Batch of 4 targets.
Target 1
Amino acid sequence: MARAELNEYDSIINNIQDGYFETDLAGSFTYANVAACEICGYPKDEIIGLNYRQYTDATNGKKAFSAFNKIYKSGDAGKLINYEIVRKDGTRRQVEISASLILDRSGKPVGFRGTTRDITNRRQMEENLQRSEERYRTIIDNIEDAYFEVDLKGKFTFVNDALCESLGYFWDELIGMDHRHYAEESTVRELFALFNRVYRTGAPVKAYSFELSRKDGRKGFCEISVTLIRDKQGKPVGFRGIARDVTERKQFEEQIRHLATHDTLTGLINSFMFRELLQENIDYAHRYGKRFALFFMDLDGFKIINDTLGHEAGDQVLVECAARLRRTLRASDCIARLGGDEFVMLLRDVSRLEEVTLLADKILSTIREPVDLGGSEYVVTGSMGISIYPQDGEDVHTLMKTADLAMYSAKEKGKDNFQIFSPEVKPLLHEKSLFGELLRFALERNELFLEYQPRLNLKTGAISGVEALLRWRNPTLGSVAPLQFIPVAESTGQIIPIGRWVLQKACLQNVAWQRQGLARVSISVNISQRQLLDEQLIGDIEDALAESGLDPELLELEIAERTILSNLPRIIDVLKGIKDIGVQLVVDDFGSGYSSLSQIRYFPIDSFKVDRSLISGAPANEISKVVIRAIFEIGKLLDLTVVSEGVETPEQLAFVRASSCDLMQGFYFSKPVSPDEIAALLREHVPRPL
Ligand code: C2E
Ligand code: MG
Ligand code: MG
């Protein structure tokens, strides 16, 4: 087409989005439409005559030359030549050109014509995409979690190394496999249902755990998160997800559950579990009008063996006694060790006096048989108290209490005998109402005061906080231990005003220390179940903070594990309310009850304090050690601060420090002391790594 004819199409050409141009054989523009001018960045009147060398650098100029030269020599149209141009304003753009020869009437080449397109943005996008794809691949290959993609039928279409490893298959074996290859039938059904749900709702599923079988037949636990893959049109084409091997965590949890319900030394159930079983038996006996007996035994002279022959000998005696009790009683009877040298037994079908007497005699005589300790024989005896349901108590507490009282009278009667509870010892039970009576006035008569126990950071050795502990000194009763009067205050409700007072006092005290220029430490206050469920609690905390001016961050509330895990409604809301004020939450006495770590993670807590009973087992006891380490480990996983409570010996300290515990509290560093003594400690204590 000649120039003149072309001009007729000028307006059309100027309206197309791609650049259209014509050049002479040397590569100088003879024509350019609006788009071509824009791409090159020159106005229309300057572009005519402009040579390609003027708007390319040397490298790109060569590239352009050879491409056009090829077209000239071959006569073929050059498809999609790419190079970079430099616009008039100096900016650089990527262009894509397709060009062909312009021939005159005799067929002689006179120039080139072609279209051009600015592909800078597209290039950029392509590069980004490629880079992100590479990045994505590296991440997938390197993550420890297993990554997979499956098609709509559940067959693997992509797996990373971690997945191959955890299932024990090679990559090419896995591709094409579905759930049936690595899960039992019932699990397969669950998995299909799970994927189906993701398919139907489009909503991802998080942390779904199931049991899997590896290629070698070993079982494991795995937790998967799954999302839907859609194609460009939004149509589901498969699923992708992450799988995590949680076998070890499951085993930890199992171990911990066992620990929470069993005595690690003897393997008998512990006091917590025993109380649960006792409650179940009471319910049953109540419903069917049955009776049963509770035997409460304390060893005589055990302390002497422990003190003279050492703890190991003491442990051996306890293990031996447990074994003998097991041999003497039926498999269906419950035997528990309550701690120390106290054992308790629940005998379901024994309630008539003759049966009880016969069995009690039998137990005491097996206990009386000599124990071999390192070649020498020692005799240990037991004193036993017996209570009968329902006559000696209709609830757990009373039944245990009456058996305990009967046991004391057996001790008084010269040990190595048993006593069945009789109402003569009952007056002692009034202790509870006596406490209640006297406690009512304790606050107003200034009989209550606080002591404080410091807590050390194990890394720096600095004092990081103190725990406020309530004390009661009464003119009639003398000093009463918190474990004796706090349960009473709980049951009468007096813990509410008392607890409010503790909060105020502790916050004020902490501010007082700060005013003396001492180090900023946190103060922790124990909150019992009754308080936690009190509607006023949040208000009380806010008041105590406002009155004292204490930074909320420096206040910690300690709540016992059994309260947190009590499944009472509202607990989680109250905890959230407390967190909203900015106060720290600590789970106290962790590991003393049902320590379900999998449950703990759903609560908004900052740290947990491992119970003294666990710490006292370490480092002598291997199982305690394993379990404590597991608890610490999981604490770390959940990003919680871990505190050890009741550290008394250098060995315990060394153990908890080596097991990467964060904080410790215990007699080894300091007993609970007065505010002045804390001030002196804060002033004089030189932090050094412990
Ligand atoms: P807790 O909160 O677990 O407090 C720790 C207890 O362990 C304290 O007993 C403390 O004196 C003791 N302790 C600390 N280190 C060691 C150690 O190395 N060895 C030994 N053998 N014991 C150690 P305490 O003062 O008798 O308090 C007992 C419990 O009474 C507390 O247990 C807490 O649950 C409760 N309690 C104390 N003060 C309050 C309070 O103000 N309000 C409420 N609701 N409960 C409180
Ligand atoms: Mg505490
Ligand atoms: Mg505690």
Target 2
Amino acid sequence: MASKPKPSVTSVPTGGAVLPALLSRPYPAVMGVVNVTPDSFSDGGQFVAPEQALAQARKLVAGGADIIDIGAESTRPYGSQPVSAEEELRRLKPVLADVVALGVPVSIDSMKSEVVAWALDQGAVIANDVWGLQRDAGMAALVAARGAPVIVMHNRDRADPAIDIMQDIADFLARSLDIAAKAGILPDRIVLDPGIGFGKTPEQSMTALARLAELSSFGLPVLVGASRKRFISTVVPSEPQQRLGGSIAAHLIAAQNGARIIRTHDVAETVQALRVAAAIRDQQ
Ligand code: HH2
């Protein structure tokens, strides 16, 4: 029996070439979200079936996604089910290779090194760790060994309205960078993320967006993911699916304050907003 021709994915950069390729334009790169989960906060259950997940990834690529971020465990603060590495792998196995074959760099959204290792083997090229190398003791060594870029996100077990959130983010990210350096992760492979909605009150999430430029002192690219998050509904009461306007507002402010990658569920609309904002900014 003739074997199915393998789609060519040779154009996708790897290792140290990934971030320069993504960060070369005058507006931020856009990362589209595919959640292969039953319980994600905004699209839980919509893309659990492999064909639905792949169709969503195709839609995001057609909409202009520069990266597809695929995750198989919800990290929402309330109501998500922690899952085992085996369960994450069971959800990813039927779909990851096909998403990789779309020819866009794929990032794996997992806090488990075992899952990240498997996904990198399948052709994912970025590790996205919502615990910033501080939960799984094997994550930093794995990322270093593979030479993969890593997104290091700020997180807390619970929000504390009394703290200075920018100080907490800076301290946490400094710890992550220390872990990264000790493991041998090259600085040019690291992206920082303030973790909008993670261990923060809605006000603290908005503070992180308003004061995002303070993170530029680290000298590393910054990713922001505000898409459909709860702080939006504290300003304008809305269900997650109704938060496109608020998400775009947040992402435009993030871009203005230095974000170089935007993580969103709504790629086409976000690409348009970012490109128009950059064109207006650059018009003399
Ligand atoms: N937000 C979510 C998940 N992963 N990764 C990074 N780096 N930054 C983020 O802001 C971020 C992230 C939450 O969004 P979503 O994936 O839609 O929800 P869930 O965790 O419920 O699957």
Target 3
Amino acid sequence: MLDDIAKTGTDFDRDLAAANDPAALDQVRVRYFGRKAGAIPALFERLKEVPKEEKRSVGDALNKLRDRIKSTLDEKTAQVASQKQVGQRPLDVTLPARLPPLGHLHPITIVRRELEEIFLEMGYSLDPGPEVETDWYNFEALNFTPDHPARDMQDTFFLDVDQLLLRTHTSNVQIRSMERWKPPLRVLSCGRVYRRDEITMRKSPVFHQAEGFLVDRGIHIGHLRATLEQFIKRLFGADLAMRMRPSYFPFTEPSAEVDMSCVFCRGKGCNTCSFTGWMEILGSGMIHPQVLRNVGIDPDEWSGFAFGFGLDRAAMIKFDIPNIRTLFENDLRVLQQF
Ligand code: PHE
């Protein structure tokens, strides 16, 4: 009997060493203290058969074993439980720190910066110009007649104060820059413009334009064409063709609407370009002599070209964004893709 008690002790030590989680420890507890088949109750049961004179020493040994098993089992159970609270994975102090989330550039900002980069390389200066304007800078100096339909309430946001308005295009910067600096001049101006339009897939009452213009001696339409071709190819791809169609703007003469090969079918014809192979992307022309006179530049000595380019549309084309609203909603799920 004493041998069996000793053996139960060593069995327990081995079982305890192998049990390292709460479930395994529970099983050990059942194996030794379980009422039906537990090893300790079974030994106590056998105490009856022990001869009287040995009862005392065997009983003592059995009590000692029971107390030892109970206390070591309790101790290990508590220890495993506290480890679990701290987290079973050890702390890896060599892991790199988690960085704070970084912002992304807006698609319009990406296109604007690319455009600025291209024109800065060509020697242009940047001049944003004001969004709140007077009639003179937005219309009059640009040769709009007083009854020109573009001035109409339907197109222009007029402010209540001082006959101010929100500029309807970035061409106001032509006048402002030419007033401030003497030619030769090369300026690129990017910014917001406003028109009283309904919001649709392709139109928004607030949108973005880039205005480029150059004034120097002997400037002709070939300079305009070469400049446009350069920047279109750099912005959208060297394989794209470009064409100019006669058009009309009060502040340029002659004026031209500019198309480039459809970026989606590369000129073959698809749904987006209505199977023409072309997309209209900007308005341009040679600065009207009257506009130069309005800012005190002699049109017999100087000439220049100008163009206006829609940045929203460029971003939509470049990143295949079908709805202009996407550019103004600031949905993080969209912005994070850029
Ligand atoms: N300002 C014109 C527009 O908004 C575009 C343009 C700019 C045309 C410069 C010619 C020259 O439609």
Target 4
Amino acid sequence: MTNAIDGRVASGKQVFTEGDIAAAVVRIAAAVRADYAGEELMMVGVLKGAVLFAGDLMRALGDYPLIVDFIAVNSYNTGRDGSGGQVRLLKDLDIDPAGRHILLVEDIVDEGLTLEYLLTNLRSRGPLSVRSCALLNKAYHRKNSVAADYVGLEAPDAFLVGYGLDFQERFRNIPHIRQLQPARSSVP
Ligand code: IMP
């Protein structure tokens, strides 16, 4: 089973190189710097998928005034049949977001349910502002009208792994982003 999945990853094509990702991170950091004009930001990374992106974005923001926290959610996507999914909070913030400018950092926006849940949750806690950034945007299966304020790269309609993205908790450590080759009988 594991070998079959390894084969699907190995034979899936590379979608974004480390260079593509690094350039996207630099672009987002520049836009954030310009938009917030020196006001302190609270970056909220969404575990686990955004862990590498959040780390690289922090580093790209250099000396910008920043505090950092993480939140973890589980998304239960119920398939592409329109029946919807559920999002559950697994780990809350350690720092109170009230009175702060929040920048939510997501790995990928697909159906949009996770981002919608997190934006609603954070906006209900009295922040000064909430914006979001996503390294990847998949526009094909959106179930609502949410969109990240900062998007790094437009993703193809394929299941992707690497740079934080997993398939069954594996492959997050691949430094670039690859496509998981669809299985003959089932696609995740
Ligand atoms: P959404 O609620 O469908 O937008 O789900 C977003 C979450 O689904 C992301 O934060 C990822 O964890 C996961 N996800 C969506 N597409 C992919 C993919 O291609 N590879 C790995 N995870 C994905």
